Amino acid sequence: MAAAGVAPLLPGLMPATAAQAAPTGRPGFPLVAGGTAVDLFVDPADDPAVLRAAGDLQADVERVSGVRPRLLHTLPERAEHLVVVGTIGASPAVDRLITRRRLDVARVQGRWEASVTQVVDRPLPGVDRALVIAGSDRRGTVYGVYDTSERMGVSPWYWWADVPVEHRDTVTLPAGPLKRYEPSVRYRGIFVNDEQNLTTWSRRTQEPDKNIGPRTYERIFELLLRLKANYLWPAMHPYSDFFNEHRENPELADRYGIVVGSSHPEALLRNGVHEWQPWAEEHKNADGTLPLYDYTVNPAVISDYWRARARQNAGYESSWTLGMRGLHDSALETKYATTIPEKVAVMNDIIADQRRILAEEVGAAATPQIFIPYKEVLELYNAGVQVPDDVTLIWPDDNHGNMRQLPDAAERRRAGGNGIYYHLSYWGRPRSYLWLDTTQLSKVWQELRRVYDHQADRMWIFNVGDIKSIETGLSFCMDMAWDVDRWGPDDVGEFLVAWAGRQFGRRHGPEIAAIRTEYYRLAAERRPEFIDRGVFSTVHHGDEAGRRMAAYGRLLERTRRLGARLPEACRDAYYELVEYPVHGAYSMNLKYYWADRNALAVRQGRGTGTNRYADLAEAAHAEEQAITRRYNAEIAGGKWDGIVNPYPSQIPKAPGRPSVTRVPRQETSGLGVAAEGNDTGADRPPSFSSLTRDRRFVDVFNTGFLPLDWTAEASHPWIRLSTAGGRLTEQARVWVEVDWARAPEGTHTPSVTFTGAGRSVEVPLRVVNEGERARRRARGFVEAHGYVSLDAAHFERRVPRGGAHWRVVRGLGRRTAAVEAVPAAAPPITEDIAARAPELRYRVLFSSTGTFPVTVFRLPSLDERGRRRLAVALDDQPVAVLSGQAVATGNRGDAWARNVEEGVEKLTATITVTEPGEHVLRLFMVDPAIAVDQIVVDTGGLPASYLAPPESYHPVFNPAPVTEPVLEEPAAPGR
């Protein structure tokens, strides 16, 4: 195996320096050769987690080669080759090599979770060569073991995503040292949450007598370690067994080397959903009533409740959550503390009590201790809750991937440090997203980089829902948590190439990465879980909704083509990781597209077409159900029964089956016409510009059910039509274009006349031909159709100032890239902005004059202790400061809710164009870490739509604007 080519894809691995490298030509280590596998040795006195992981390496060698090596616990008297697995300080064999300076442990020994893998000649008496895997601590050794598995070709997702293991008769590893240095983040893990699907699957396929029990957790623990994670918040909802219900669970976690903590409502490892009620039953009040989970009412009972768990789990490596919230992720209840200062005092008492319990029951091993200012607790923390200096502050996002607040300078100096709780999956307001992995990796990168730059590096915990469907996003987060500098703003996409190559072979990595990138981009426009009626326009900008569905359709076709070329062994994994997410997102959007077309047909008074769109909407819903059934019942032989369900019960505001309208059949026919930009008729004439060279549509439709004949005729020969007539049952979409080589210069108002069923309808057009010379002379973005639309990453000049600048982040936002003001901790610029703030400049050619709205599409980052501001100006005119939403309210229907649903916040100011011609549009940073996606200037012709209009003509960035194709309707029966 050419393992040297695999190693660079592993997260967090640092190749040896030139001085450390083995001599050129040194032979590799034959792990398997000639039908024989090299024996594995691990000292029986090493940590149980290491002994167990060595067993996984034994199994992985067999997965690759079909040959199972022996696992030895005593050194052989004679061996040509041997694999030695051991922890520094716990393995005499490894320690002997270090003492004799045969093993290079520089930057490994004494570090957190570090390891070295190295071939050593004559390491031990009677052993000719050994592959030594040595860790600085127990998890360091475990990670070194799993690095070796990956180098052999065993993916961390071999079980959880059915990634095939390619068979190899010969397995050879490079001789040179391979080091895994300390991680960027000390504790890295997941929260299994809103786990209804995982619970259903676990009960059906793993443990029929449990709702997520030890057998399932064994699989989760192994996955975490293979991803180089070390931390877990276990499942906690009513439909799951609580973690400590099965005492094997914490014992297993300790045997695997996993640190177990608990989420924000689960103080001191107590699961209030399941455990409080029985405790209350056993500790009734003197009058026989049950005590309330309210520290202002029953402090002693609650304290004893916490103490019992601290005593029970004192012997395990745990993380202890301090503070208090209500039962089952509800707000803190304080009957006798009604004001904020009173609640702050209560929280301080709670923390002091919990610290006392941990000191008495667990002692010095009660670390790490964490405090999570989630939702209402953040308000209390900011109002004065005193968190001891050695406690780690865990900062939450807004549940939608935007960090709410980050540590200030004083908090960054805390001995306990800082961490984050970040959602890749969420149940709650304003909308849930539990079904698919839909958060752009560049968005994750942007926020996590911002987090790390604020020194929140002690603990990163990711809400992953049911685990399945979050495979790609979780892998990326774990890679970043280990080596935050591995990926930069220009190469997040390279992670996808590398990751896909590890699952499906390098030759397929770039294509799968391109598919996933477009999938994430479309989700950035609107998550499929957030789709609703009437979001995307079906009449403006060339059928905005239809263009989006065409993009989805092309993506699905591309996905299927690649899937058909993959080996049969890869098909299940490909369906789970690539095809189902694309197809599912497509179907969810498609049924709402057809439902919107159905509603439009009703407004237009259509006949048979109305019912046709209703049929298409319901067919798309049926298709979504069918592919989900395939996932659950057929993929991997039904292994994932119950794991996928777009609609777990009680999801707030989940899209489902859109309602549609049908009309009774009538034996009539009639001609209807709707030009682009109009629900019906042509009151808004379609606009054409020689700069953008557009095409516009006119829908010709039947208001009845009987076929009719129709014709279309243009008033001028340089107006071109895609079709000039025919037999009409439901609809014909006529595309109108201009032959610019024949059209005279100037502004013209030609028309197209549609005739049929005894009726004629004239559709006026507006054509502006500025000539080829004007097109060639344009140097920037050019106004046309009453607006200028530009991508923020398409700037002409970047002006850094004061140590801050704007950088381009590829794959971020609704287009191909966005711009972000960095560094994240830079001071705000609030005075003399035009001279002191970092700036982007855009050259714009205006033909109109006046005062116009300019809208900046910013990504909705937050700062609940600060502001979210940027500024715009035209030329040397005064700067206009725009203030964005800084606070996550958690309410439906307000600005924050709209921002997270749409993925952008639209901030609008005005600029004044005093004379036609070239001008410079300027964008300034006011607050750092602001990201901007698009900018639109409305000069009087911009229709309302969800997305920004297509980008304006630019000789460099958009020299040949092409109207994107629109989803084609399936042919109707008999058409």
Keywords:
globular, single chain, seven-stranded mixed β-sheet, 21 helices, 975 residues, alpha/beta, eight-stranded parallel β-sheet
**Beta-strand segment tally:** 41
Q: Average pLDDT, to the nearest integer?
A: 95
Secondary structure tally, helices: 21
Query: What share of residues is helical?
Result: 25-40%
Return Rg in Å.
31 Å
Main sheet strand line-up: 13-12-11-18-17-16-15-14
Beta-strand percentage?
A: 15-25%
Largest sheet: 8 strands, parallel
Shape: globular
Give the uncertain stretches in residue-range form.
Answer: 1-9, 14-24
Structural class: alpha/beta
Q: What is the rounded distance between the termini?
A: 57 Å
Topology readout:
Layout: E1 13-15, E2 29-33, E3 36-37, E4 40-42, H1 48-65, E5 71-72, E6 79-87, H2 92-99, E7 115-124, E8 127-135, H3 138-152, E9 171-173, E10 178-180, E11 187-192, H4 196-205, H5 214-226, E12 231-233, H6 248-256, E13 259-260, H7 272-282, H8 299-312, E14 320-322, H9 340-361, E15 369-371, H10 376-382, E16 392-396, H11 409-412, E17 418-423, H12 441-453, E18 459-465, H13 471-482, H14 492-504, H15 509-525, H16 544-565, H17 571-604, H18 608-633, E19 671-675, E20 687-689, E21 695-702, E22 708-714, E23 719-721, E24 725-728, E25 731-738, E26 746-748, E27 751-756, E28 759-764, E29 766-769, H19 771-777, E30 781-782, E31 787-791, E32 797-799, E33 805-810, E34 817-822, H20 833-836, E35 839-846, E36 850-859, E37 868-874, E38 880-884, H21 895-902, E39 905-913, E40 917-925, E41 931-938
Helix pairs in contact: 1-3, 5-6, 8-9, 12-13, 14-15, 15-16, 15-17, 16-17, 17-18
